[in-house]
Amino acid sequence: MAAAVVAAVVLVGGIGDREPGGFRAGSADLGDPYVPGSGNGGYDVAHYRLGVRYDPADDRLTGRAEITATATHGLSRFNLDLAGLEVSSVTVDGAPAEHRRDDSELVVTPARGLDSGGRFTVEVTYGGVPEADADGVLGSGGFQHTDDGAIALGQPYSAATWFPVNDHPSDKATYDLEVTVPDGLAALSNGVPGERTSADGWTTWRWAERSPMASYLSTLVIGDYRVQTGEHAGKPMVTAVPDGLPATGPAATSLARTGEIADFLTTRFGPYPFESYGGVVVSDSRIGYALETQSRPVYGPGFFRGGEPNYSVVAHELAHQWFGNSVALARWGDIWLNEGFASYAEWLWEEHDGGRSAQRNFELQYAATEWSRRTLDPGPGQMFSTAVYKRGALTVHALRRTVGDDAFFQILRTWTSERRDGTATTADFVALAERVSGRDLGSFFDTWLTGTAAPALP
Length: 458
Ligand SMILES: [Zn+2]
Prior knowledge:
Radius of gyration: 22 Å
Shape: globular
Bound molecules: zinc ion
Number of strands: 24
Oligomer: single chain
Largest sheet: 9 strands, mixed
Number of helices: 9
Helix content: 10-25%
């Protein structure tokens, strides 16, 4: 994302209870101290098929989620993350399953244990008035009712406020989504648009994200939007701005360069990783950030308030499609791998677009940096801090200065190619940079990512 606020919390992940017969409960947490309670152990989701109906008139959502997963050990029971909402039924492989709620956990006990390595399908029917997360790490997040519809958005989580999910980026999955809303409203989400149908005053919009996606990168935006559907580089391009904003205003003008900016980033980072392009501008002032929701970033209104277009934020969110989305985090402590590279992409774009050079931005930022704050593993309260974004970008440019342009861009392209559709850690990046450059970079990364004094200029 592109701007933020924070809250700090700590917790240790649970370990599943051992039970006879080789089956045991999956854990209610993945032990990531940045997001206590998020994610669940014991299975790996492959696909979410979601059917959601939402009526802005009474703010009620009804949903059906079909989740296809593989057990990673013999499972006697397992958890899904679901905040608020009421569950009316759960089946596992078609058979009714016991279920109970424990705060934001949905605990499911199938009729019989699930074998390690076996694929299973969970169906959950649920509904209610979604509860937004007003005090999220980023500010207001989750499924939020708006004047004209709703916006589901947030980092490091928001998905669990509108569907049951293994809510951690380490468990990526593909998605099919059908959203039914009153006729006349748009319902925008990730990926490739499908057929749109109407019946009895309701319209169903269909979206398919066929590349594995971290759950926090899912989004749903419902309301009065001017939707533009076209094609770019042979793939669907869907952009939307609120009906209330002018067609030639700064928001629409910024979004209009999405394809051009993505093409520029392709020349630096390698092939665009997804099957569709786009972006959505929202006007709700509670959204004080932009987020790189997969293949279709969502931009809050603040970025376009100056009356001028804002291409930096578009470059930032599009850079995340490679850094953060296609190559996702295995743990939140490595968030500089997302934000350092997306912030650096702003410098690359600015130089390309006739502005200040990346080297000049590096020099100015270096002089302004408070070196006591670390970039790697900054602590949950500092996930969206300058140390992650700007010192992260400094580290990226310092790497370029250290290994030279050829090796540097080879490192980036190798990273996005070898790790495409997967997850990775900082140690993985350091190892790859050393392999491609043929240099020992251990002390380089230590100094730039965690040192407490200004590093020598490379
Ligand atoms: Zn970002």
